[in-house]
Amino acid sequence: MLGGGRATVARVTASKPRMATVVIPQNQDEKPLSSYDELLSVFHQACKPASSFRCGAEIEKFGVLSDGSPIGYQGESGVRALMNELAQTKGWAEQVESDGGPVIALVRDGASITLEPGSQFELSGSPFENCHQVCAELSEHMGELAPFSERHGIRWLGVGFHPFAQREPFVMVPKQRYAIMREYLPRRGTLALDMMLRTATVQANYDYSSEHDAMTKMRVALRLAPLTTAIFANSPFYEGAPFGGKSYRAKVWLDTDPDRSGLVPGLWKNGATFVDYVEWALDVPMFMFKRNDQKVTNTGQTFRSFWKGGFQGHRPTLTDWQMHLNTLFPEVRLKKTIEVRGADSQSGALACALPALYTGIFYDSKALAAADAFTHDWTFSEVMACREEVWNEGLDVRFRSGTLVPLAERLIEIAEGGLERRAILSSAGNDERVHLARLKDLISHGQSPADLLIDGIHHAADMKSEILARTDVARRR
């Protein structure tokens, strides 16, 4: 998720297995930015009619060997070998950052497979009309991974923080931006390298019809961000044992980089607009930009400074601005889509729950209005205080006069209403509420996924084997 989801790339049809290589396109002759309106154009041009709305998911997972050790980029069981096999047999095209550069992604028919810095394997799915399709795509993806995984004894773990690995053994994926982040981010937070190497998330992406629609969705999702984290808390382990809390991934994000993460305070005011998001983004320090397929390291300079004064003779382009937007990591991110980013990665039965939850809220006008009204008086300071505690206590965090449990129940109710009114049926005759059923049951018992993971874990005869089994993406628990 660090790289920001689906890029505009060449599409390769999967009907006939073949191997191809795609260089990430750049507009070398692009003119420098000349007006503020160009900064805003990224968002205005993304607006589309509700009839064209789509939902998508980005799901990260850890590949581990039988002893729980992480697979890396290189080697016969590494993700590079896996990507090569998928390209040869499943019609994916390998993607590189420059001619002759290392493979850093796969692309096919609007979807991509990308790598996080610690070789976390991410499916950035196609945009679909409904959640049934999102879930079917994930099942197909896991099926495509199965032959390689079975031969090499790899299991795929859907959990927010690596349950076993220490930080030191990781070798970072050879992506240009990651090398810069490895040097810069530890100056901004002591757990920044953990964020890069040992965390995994599930993200859901949504369209918007207008500036007003985008700001409403952003405002609602930002208010709900800590509640979303609590509902999907799923990382109670640290280096092989429970650490005592519910989401170590959420703890990590509190000590990563406050400049580019968090709750975007400028969007909480009444009447917030795209300008407010642009103003926040302009004052975030950059990582890099590219010229002639080569990175230009530019850490520390804000994009506003780059826009006004340039850097080493270079002037910013619209492509630079879009790259910068991809390096911002708030709990809810605005780009050509709205990205809900605050959830831990999940194992099989809950992997589609986040896309279903926010599809029900965002894509039904009555549900969106209800969620806005439900949260209308939640203040930034209250929600921020909740965010600072939710990693430890999960749904037991105190918010005003009670815990988060009744708030989670109300949110599920709102989302279910939206999904019911959408009335989109699967081949089995179920509407999209089916993807919330397991989550709803958990919340009715005051639990998050982390509570299931740690239930009785200390009494397991083999704790490592039990953790592997409970976090397996393929497990439909």
Topology:
Layout: E1 20-23, H1 36-44, E2 55-64, H2 79-90, E3 93-96, E4 103-108, E5 111-115, E6 121-124, H3 131-152, E7 155-157, H4 176-184, H5 192-198, E8 201-206, H6 211-223, H7 225-231, E9 237-238, E10 241-242, H8 248-253, E11 261-262, H9 274-282, E12 288-291, E13 294-297, H10 303-309, H11 318-326, E14 329-330, E15 332-334, E16 338-344, H12 353-362, H13 365-374, H14 380-393, E17 398-399, E18 402-403, H15 405-422, H16 437-444, H17 449-454, H18 463-471
Parallel strand pairs: 1-3, 11-14
Antiparallel strand pairs: 2-6, 2-7, 2-8, 3-4, 4-5, 5-6, 8-16, 9-10, 12-13, 15-16, 17-18
Helix pairs in contact: 7-14, 12-15, 13-15
Question: How would you describe this structure in keywords?
Answer:
alpha+beta; 477 residues; two-stranded antiparallel sheet
